[in-house]
TrEMBL record, chains A, B:
Its EC number is 5.1.99.6. It comes from Kwoniella europaea PYCC6329. Its cofactor is K(+). Gene3D superfamilies: YjeF N-terminal domain. It is found in: Cytoplasm; Mitochondrion. The lineage of its organism: Eukaryota, Fungi, Dikarya, Basidiomycota, Agaricomycotina. Residues 11-228 form the YjeF N-terminal domain. It catalyses: (6R)-NADHX = (6S)-NADHX; (6R)-NADPHX = (6S)-NADPHX. Belongs to the NnrE/AIBP family. This is NAD(P)H-hydrate epimerase. One of its GO terms (cellular component) is mitochondrion. The keyword NAD applies.
Length: 249, 249
């Protein structure tokens, strides 16, 4: 039985169930494990020897929170992360996660020009900008951010859904808030870290594909027929066959 | 420079600093990472093939919370944990951690006789009863629990400080609350998982010794001269030379 690609609605429902009174998880716990999964997947894809300098691009929502946790773990894994966080989320948890990174002296950039410059000095980018709640149009400065990521030649590791992609349809032409005739091309990441279960929009993703979030209760996985493959050892991520490999079989 | 064995007072101070406004960690985060460390250390010491059935003995405090998190991760690592929790802690976090385990259908025992019986069917015990805040006398049913653990022949993995040991002095004769002439012998675990930094009382521990808690900020480690050894890869634990190995060198 192959893994299920879930809809935006089901992804939201699973998160809600995990954090309900009966699921009993806190956002702190789930974000810690999700961010750790992302850091592990990056580490298993690009070694610290060859790809030490990691640009961690964070959006204002939970996806950005996962990015902040990942940046902290990457620091402990001996990478040199730099955080780009143009619009810090207002929730208390994001402030705490940011402070934890600042305490490790991880540089935090706010300005998009600084981001573009620093990107030239980076070995790999962790894209934690938009998650499964994203819908167009693109707001500033994320049009410039996505364009810069699309233009870069360094590898891109996207968290859950590549930023700008439709959660349902995958890559899509994007328009910006100030100009609905200007379309922006979305990028194809080299590596994807799906959290809990992959989303419908990444069904045809051709790159290296990891699944993270080794906390989904068996009963919940069964109820939603997620068909999660077996993780091995103490790993927090498991590699999925890519769409390319699957179609070749 | 060898690792520092810290006092009860310093252990408390480090925890307080991590969870202060400036440290910015939540108890949920630290307990998640500490419990994950314990599960990883057990897994690296006793494989799931040879030691599938794990008795996780939990005390009423934070140490028991670490045990509940470890039990959940051990379940995901494909072990078959059973939890013994005679006195559930009253904090909300312990209730949530317990519920998360119940949602995985992990058996939870409350009765000491059931614990003794189940111990006979177990392959390894994770001792998460008392942590660095423990001081005698022993209260019921923990006198019986410690006696049962001392009598068992299966391997014992202790969290942070073997239950009953003095945080400062190590193994000590214990007396019970109801009878201060009756002394109880403490046990010597096979494996120890020190969290954040090893405590003074385990300086002469002869077994296999892991350090967990890969979240201590560099500045804090430097300030307290912890001399934490380097973790490798994405591991959440690092093995320390045991007192036996050190004295042989």
């Amino acid at each position: 039985m192959s893994i299920r690609y879930i809809s935006q609605k089901l992804a939201q429902q699973i998160d809600e169930e995990l954090m309900s009174a009966s699921g009993a998880f806190s956002l702190d716990q789930l974000m810690e494990l999700a961010g750790l999964s992302c850091a592990q997947a990056l580490s298993k894809s690009y070694s610290v020897e060859s790809h030490k300098r990691v640009m961690v691009a964070c959006g204002p929502g939970n996806q950005g929170g996962d990015g902040l946790v990942a940046a902290r773990h990457l620091h402990h894994f001996k990478y040199k992360p730099t955080i780009y966080l143009p619009k810090p989320g207002s929730k208390d948890i994001y402030k705490r996660l940011l402070k934890q990174c600042e305490n490790l002296n991880i540089p935090v950039l706010k300005d998009v020009e600084e981001f573009k410059n620093e990107l030239k000095e980076s070995d790999v980018i962790l894209d934690a900008i938009f998650g499964f709640s994203f819908s167009p149009p693109l707001r500033e400065p994320f049009d410039q951010v996505l364009n810069a990521i699309t233009s870069t030649t360094i590898p891109i590791v996207s968290v859950d859904i590549p930023s700008g992609w439709s959660v349902t349809e995958g890559p899509q032409p994007l328009y910006t808030e100030k100009d609905n005739t200007q379309t922006i091309k979305t990028f194809e990441p080299d590596v994807l870290v799906s959290l809990t279960a992959p989303k419908e929009g990444v069904r045809n993703f051709k790159g290296r594909h990891w699944l993270g979030g080794r906390f989904v209760p068996d009963d919940l996985a069964k109820k939603f027929e997620l068909n999660i493959p077996e993780y091995t050892g103490v790993d927090q991520v498991v590699e999925l066959p890519s769409a390319k490999q699957s179609s070749e079989q």
